[in-house]
Amino acid sequence: MICPRCHAEFRPGFTVCSDCGIALVEELDEAAVAVIEEEAGGLEPFHETGSSDELAAILEAFEEHGVAYVVQAGTALSLLSSDVDPGSLPEEWQARLLVVGAHRARAREILRELRRQALDASAASRGGGDRTPL
Fold first, then answer.
1. Model-level pTM?
2. Which member of 17, 18, 30, 76 has the lowest number of beta carbons within 10 Å of its beta carbon?
3. How far apart are CA 48 and CA 51, in angstroms?
């Protein structure tokens, strides 16, 4: 028995991967892998930023909470999504964050909390420690 996600092998009699929590298969085939990718939701665009500090804070929180992600970053990101004249490069540094679809809701919660913390810190630094909700 094999886990279609992590490819761990199990003795006969086991039906669920102890690490991934998904059903084991007898053989890895394209259909089994496709089902797992569909369940996970694949990678979805989540957030873009030009701030390396913001990106670092998000990634630290994602690591802490087990959110699966991919980062694309650099000064030529537009080449990934459109035809761009290479003579117009480099662009300003930009990072694009993608998350696994199944983790999107948790990623949104984390980003909301980080933004709230940033607003609180900004208000405190201006001396307006008490914020009035909008």
1. 0.61
2. 30
3. 9
